[in-house]
Structure formats: structure tokens, C-alpha cells
Amino acid sequence: MKRIQRLPDHLVNQIAAGEVVERPASALKEMLENSLDAGAGKITVDLAQGGIKLIRVTDNGSGIAPDDLPLALDRHATSKIHSLSDLESVATLGFRGEGLASVASVSRLTLTSRPQDSAHAHQIVAIDGTLHPVEPAAHPEGTSVEVVDLYFNTPARRKFLKSEATEYAHCSATFERIALAHPHVEFLLRHNGKVVQRLPTQTLAERIGAILGRDFVDAALTVDAEAAGLTLRGLVASPTYSKASRDAQYFYVNGRFVRDKLAQHAIRQAFRDVLHHERHPCYALFLTLPPEGVDVNVHPTKIEVRFRESQAIHQFVFHGVNKVLANTVAGSTPQQVGFGQPPSDGAAPAPSLAPSAAPTLTARPVYQQQSSLPLSVAREASATYATMFAGVREDEQRLANRPALPEASANVGSLAAFAPATAAALPATDPDGLPPLGFALAQLHGVYILAQCAEGLILVDMHAAHERIVYERLKTALEADAIPSQPLLLPVSFAADKLEVATVHDEATGMQRLGLDLAPLSPTQIAVRAVPIWLKDGDPVELARAVIKDVREAGMTRVLTERRNELLATMACHGAVRANRQLTLTEMNALLRDMEATERSNQCNHGRPTWVRLSMKELDGLFLRGR
Q1: Residues 571, 576, 579, 582: is their CA dihedral positive or negative?
Q2: What DSSP string describes 141-180?
Q3: Which of 235, 381, 598, 602 has the fewest beta carbons under 10 Å from its own?
Q4: Across the beta sheet with 230-237, what order do the strands follow?
Q5: In what helix (H) or strand (E) does residue 614 lie, and over which residues does it extend?
Q6: Given CA atoms 127, 132, 134, 136 in this order, what sign does their dihedral have?
Q7: Cα dihedral 385, 390, 391, 397 sign
Q8: Element (H, E) at 186
Q9: What are the distances in angstroms from CA 627 to CA 503, 620, 621, 622, 623?
């Protein structure tokens, strides 16, 4: 058996490099974090051959003293922590002091720096981990780190690198992740001598738009939550902007990009009622908490963290995102993000997306006074409806004859955009009090409702929309106590097996909380005596079978807790109006009004959109008008 021996420092550094410097993007991340920790206000990145041949990061930070240059390339030498208490409350991006040493052991590295209060610059060269003497050099205030021929001395590692295009894509992604969290810093990226990306000092919203695209910002909802020393700010895209992959998911903890399963689960849970199961939400969220509340020293590349109060963090993130999504109603547009001026000083501002003091609309438009009409309306309800909106109909007609909307409309819209997302229960309307979804015109093939609004044409999937309305009502009723039921004039019976009969016999009381009154008639027959009041027009047998199936598989306790929303979604689907059912004009308008007052009504229970808008400009384009 071989004797235990101490490894030489150079081999230790190369082993550490295998963990820390997985590819050129990993080295770039370490270098960028050092520049930000040095207080840099401008950072320039130069890459050659995807970072395999050259990585150079230049900043205007505080710089490194000449005597400290050799220490900067030594293992576990750092200026960021000095004691265990510092390690337990890390407030910087880097802290271990092994990043540059690991990179220097597998490359040809040149470190040049000039401190802010120094008249001269100095540099040190490390080749294969061997340090050369410190020498004078020409350099502006700040620091440059140049890494050439990464893994030149470890051919086994170098052959595992991918193509130049792949490695550059990873470097670009790392550059964008770090730049996104620091909008107060100017960034420049060059590849093979060509400028690829230039990011000036910006507001957070502008930086998000520059990296994720303006379409993301246009479809985004503002998140701004604060409680018990925790702050969550940023943007989440509306469910209709979801993607098939997780590429557009950016989550930061105290300015550090992380992939945290806890946060991902909380956000996914917030989207569960409005997102199709095969789609993924898009977001850029920034969580801020006291440094001692998070342990960042749990992963070699610091891509994962561990929260000391993980359950509290999960609940905070979930409620912060869920509250924003719950305030989206049909007819509303995503809250516009305020683009302020960039900060004048170099300090990193707290992420802010909209003005802190903004006017809020308090006037209630005429249509909001309408009481919610059930879908099964009596004939006399039509006359009541027509009388209620006679004046509005005349205004709508006058609006259609006008060439353009008055300037007051734009003013109202701009004020509504600054209103807090938590304050607006219903979307803003035009000055004439027209509903956001307008008034119904007709029904298309028994599936879609066509409605005229101030901007153009609205198309509504009536089944999906009614499904969402019923689902939200069922949730609200069950949270209050129990779902109200509607006794059937004549109970409906159906054939059942012994397990189904036993389930009804054992769980009849729990099913009554769901608004469903079932009773065994015989060992092979079950009677449906009452159904939830909002599902009275559905098929009671199908509804009963679906509920019995869920209760038998999961148990009543889980159905009323963990699987509650899944069961209510199933019930709502059975009770929603079906395709090819002819609705009267009054029923269509009643459905539109209910959509405008229902949370999350932009999507059905399965995450599909419930309505779309075609503006007059889009309609004119279809007919080539104005060309």
C-alpha cells in the first residue's frame, strides 16, 4: 500500500482548477466577479476563439498594490474575508481566494494593475503556475487580467472543450448573467476583435430589455415585494410569453446568479394555475436578504446556495410572484415598466422598475357597476341589460365614427401603467367607460365569441374563459368553507363498481364540502343528489366519476389539501360551457364582464390563452389598407 504524502501546491491548484475552471466561461466568471468586487464602473471583455485562445478582462476598479500582486495568484489569499464571521456573512461575489490561482495553474496569465492613488502600474506573469517577478507596466487606473491558451499544459482537459462557437456561447451567457444584475456598470464584449455587445449604464428595466429583449419587457409584470428584511424585485413575463425551455430564467440572490431548486419550485407553483405543464415561465428576479441568511459556500462554482430559513424564502417568493399573477384580468395589458435615468454615482442602486410615488386611478367606470349576470339568463334579463347600457352603446357608436381617440385616453393609460400591480383589481378603461373586452357581436361556430372594443376586435374562447371563471369561484368558495350545492330535481343514478361505492360510503361528508352530494343506492348503483351550483349545467355523472376517481386514488385528505386545485380544475372543466353551445348576446356579454372581474382570466386552467386582441392596425394590414 502506498504511503500518504502531501501534494505539491501546483498539483493542488490544477485539481482545484478542475472544479472551479470547468471551461473558459468559468474563468471569465471568476474574473468578472473580481472586477465587480473592486468597485469597477466599466468592464471590457475581449475573447479570442471562444475564450480558448484568449480571455482578457479590463476594469477601472480600485486596483491591486504591487506588493499584493503575487498574493493575488496564491491559493486562499484574499482581501474579502478575514474570519469565520466574515465567511458566514459574505457580501462579495468572490471570497475564497482560489479563482485566479486555479486559472494561473492551467494557462499563461498576466495580471496588470494600477491602484487608484498610484502614479504607476505593475504587472506579474504566471506561466504554468510559475510566478515571474513583478515589473513596471503601462496601464490606466484599474486592473487587467489576461488568460492565454487555457489548459495548454493539461491536454486531457483541453480535449474535452467543445467547438469555438459552443465555448463562446457559454462565455456570452456568463457575460449576460453578470451584466444583468449590475445595470450601474458599463460592459463591453468583443470577440475576435469585433464588438459584439455594448451595455451602457442603464436602469434595471433597460438592462433587462437589452439582454432579454424588448418583447420580454413588453409582456412582463412587475414584481415588488418586501417583508421581514426580504426584498424581491424584477419582472416575470405573462404566461402567454412562456417558452419550451428554461433559457429565460434569471434568479439572483444578493446580486449573484444562482440556480436554486427552492426558488424554481416556488415560482413554478405560482405559475401552476396559468401555465401549461409543458411550458416554462420567463423571469428576471432579484432576491435581497441579509448576507448571514444565506450560505454561498456550498458549491465549487457558487452556482447554488443554501438558505438558513428555506421555508420562509419559499413562501416569500411564491406569494410575491403569485400576487402579481393573480391581479391579471382579461382585457388588461402588462404593467408598463418605468424607465428612469441611470444613477449618477457608481454605487449600485436597489433594483427599481417603476417610480415609487405614482398616481393611482380611483374613478370607477360605468361598466364596473354592472352586477355579474349568470350564463343561464331569463328572457327579461335581455331588456334589463339593454337598458343598463343604452347610453354606453350610443357612445360606442360615436367612438367608432371618430377618426382617433382623444388625447385624454393616452393620459389615462399612462397613469394606469404606474399604478401598483396590487392595487388594480380591474383594468383601466377608455374615457367613455367602455369595457376592456368590449361588447359581443356574434358567436363563431359555437366556439369563439367576437367582440368589438375600442382598439379593434376581441376573440374569446368561451369554454376556456368560462372554465377559468368557474375554477376561481370554486377555489374562493372552498377556501371560505364549502362549495354551495344545487339539489337536483330528480336524482341521477349510474352504475358503479364496489370500490366506487365504498369510496362514496366512506367519504360522503368530504364530498359535500366539494358541493357534491352522492349516496349509494345498492352495491352497484350510486345516486347524484346535488352538484356544485356553478356546475349545474354540466353532466352530473361525469363530474361524480371524476371526483370519485381522484378521491379513491389520493384520499380525501390529500384531495382537500395537496391536490385541491387539480381536482377543482377537473370539476371546472366538466362544468364549463361546451363548444357548439349557442349563447345569446346577453350571455356572451355576461361572460365578458365576468372575465374582466376574475383573477388570472387571461389563461384557462391548463395555461392556454382565453382571448386575443386584433387591433385596427393589424386588421388594416390584413386587407393592405393604407398602402
Answers
A1: positive
A2: SEEEEEEESTTTT-HHHHTT---HHHHHHHHHHHHHHHHH
A3: 381
A4: 220-227, 230-237, 283-288, 249-253, 256-257
A5: strand 611-615
A6: negative
A7: positive
A8: strand 186-191
A9: 67, 10, 9, 11, 10
Bigger pLDDT: 556 vs 134? 134
Contact assessment for residue 55 and residue 35, using Cβ atoms and an 8 Å cutoff = no
Give the integer Cα–Cα distance in Å for 623 and 613. Answer: 17
The amino acid that residue 396 corresponds to is E
- Closest Cα to residue 198, out of 209, 208, 187? 187
Maximal CA-CA distance, the chain: 98
Which spans in 261-367 are helix H? 261-271, 310-326
Looking at 21-132, list the stretches that DSSP marks H as alpha helix, in order from N- to C-terminal side.
Answer: 24-37, 69-72, 84-87, 99-104
Task: Give 205-271 as a 3 state SS string.
Answer: HHHHHHHHCHHHHHCEEEEEEEECCEEEEEEEECHHHCECCCCCEEEEECCEECCCHHHHHHHHHHH
Residues with Cβ within 8 Å of residue 554, at least 6 apart in sequence? 562, 563
Residue type, 356: S
Q: Phi first, then psi: give them for residue 433, nearest 5 degrees.
A: 75, 20
332-390 pLDDT, tens per residue?
655 545 444 444 343 344 444 443 333 333 333 334 333 344 444 434 444 444 444 44
Positive or negative torsion for Cα 374, 377, 378, 382? positive
* 209 in Cβ contact with 285 (< 8 Å): no
Q: What CA–CA distance (Å, rounded) separates 47 from 168?
A: 8
From CA 459, how far away is CA 477, in angstroms rounded?
29
Give Cβ neighbours of residue 212 (< 8 Å, ≥ 6 apart): 180, 248, 250, 282, 284
Give the burial class of 610: count Cβ atoms within 10 A of its Cβ; 0-12 exposed, 13-18 middle, 19 or more buried: buried
CA separation for the pair 1, 123 (Å, rounded) = 46
pTM for this predicted structure: 0.68
CB 81 within 8 A of CB 89: no
Average pLDDT over residues 76-80: 74
Alpha-carbon distance of 591 to 585, in angstroms, equals 10
User: What distance in Å separates the CA atoms of residue 64 and residue 141, rounded to the nearest whole number?
Assistant: 10
| Helix-helix angle 498-513:540-554, to 10 degrees | 100
What CA–CA distance (Å, rounded) separates 463 from 89?
Answer: 53
Looking at residue 363, what is its pLDDT? 35
What span, in angstroms and rounded, lies between the C-alpha atoms of 470 and 573? 8
Report whether 249 contacts 233 (CB < 8 A). Answer: no
Rounded-to-integer distance, Cα 34 and Cα 77, Å: 13
Residues 6+ apart with CB under 8 A from 603: 239, 240, 273, 274, 275, 468, 609, 610
Residue identified by cell 494561473 is 104
* CA separation for the pair 257, 304 (Å, rounded): 9
CA gap 420, 361 in Å, rounded: 10
Q: How confident is the model at residue 410 (pLDDT cuts 50, 70, 90)?
A: very low
**How does strand 249-253 pair with strand 283-288?**
parallel
Q: Would you say 531 and 488 are in contact if contact means Cβ atoms under 8 Å apart?
A: yes
Contact (Cβ atoms closer than 8 angstroms) between residue 125 and residue 156: no
Long-range CB pairs of 409-413 (<8 Å, 24+ gap) are 409/454, 412/361
